[in-house]
Design goal:
two-stranded antiparallel sheet, transmembrane, 247 residues, transmembrane helix, 9% strand, mainly alpha
Length: 247
């Protein structure tokens, strides 16, 4: 049965405690504490995320979109909790819905550990997913949902690291990498975790993986005390010199 958790770490006791919620398809997916939409708890693994869980989470927030004469597209949830795209009488009406403009990534939020995705960036990406869903782009909506979930998982992992729960943080970051393998902050914060574990060589590998996946938070990185132990290391200097000039 699908399991979920609240993503609002810092603002909700349920999220802070890491409480897990079991929900059957069709049940309310809101946190009982803060009413925020729960996110799927993915266990990770080579097989990738459970698409049925993702679909159920997306389906829970679906609203009917109808034109004046039944034109466009609308969505409904099937018995299998999957999203069905149903074409109405006038398919051309769907193209009239304007797409949300892509916004530049907002600055990452300052944290006591690592670098966290900004709430503004997460909210913009969530809206982009809603727009894609309303336009009938189910794959695009699922991709956006995965990216949002990965960023929320990064925030959870940072909170766990700040509490000294390194094993939990490592699992959370691995789950985030499964959801969005191209999210640079997953690898950056994994590098921070490796440094806390005393695994410096692996930290450099994670740091380079972050740079290869489009890391752009160099200003925040320069202020991050987590990297103080390697800041004068020739390997760190070489990496920054190599990748900072390419962004």
């Amino acid at each position: 049965m699908p399991i979920y958790k609240c993503p609002t770490v810092g603002d909700c006791e349920k999220a802070n405690s890491g409480e897990i919620f079991v929900r059957s398809p069709g049940e309310d997916l809101k946190c009982p504490e803060c009413s925020t939409l729960l996110v799927p708890r993915i266990t990770g693994g080579k097989s990738g995320p459970d698409k049925k869980i993702i679909a159920a989470a997306i389906a829970a927030g679906i609203v009917v979109i109808a034109g004046a004469v039944g034109g466009g597209l609308y969505y409904k949830k099937s018995h299998a909790a999957k999203v069905e795209v149903v074409a109405a009488a006038d398919p051309a009406a769907a193209s009239e819905a304007p797409a949300a403009p892509a916004s530049a990534s907002a600055p990452a939020q300052a944290t006591t550990v690592g670098i966290s995705p900004s709430d503004a960036d997460i909210n913009a990406q969530r809206k982009d997913g809603d727009t894609k869903l309303s336009q009938g782009d189910a794959p695009g909506a699922e991709s956006a949902s995965n990216q949002v979930a990965a960023k929320e998982m990064v925030k959870v992992a940072i909170a766990q690291m700040s509490q000294g729960k390194l094993d939990d943080a490592e699992k959370e970051l691995n789950d985030a990498a499964t959801r969005d393998p191209k999210q640079s902050l997953v690898y950056y914060n994994m590098a921070v975790l490796r440094l806390k574990q005393g695994r410096t060589d692996e930290a450099f590998k994670e740091l380079e993986a972050s740079f290869l996946n489009g890391f752009s938070y160099f200003d925040e990185m320069q202020k991050d005390p987590d990297l103080d132990t390697i800041r004068n290391d020739p390997r760190f200097i070489a990496l920054v010199k190599k990748y900072k000039t390419t962004v």
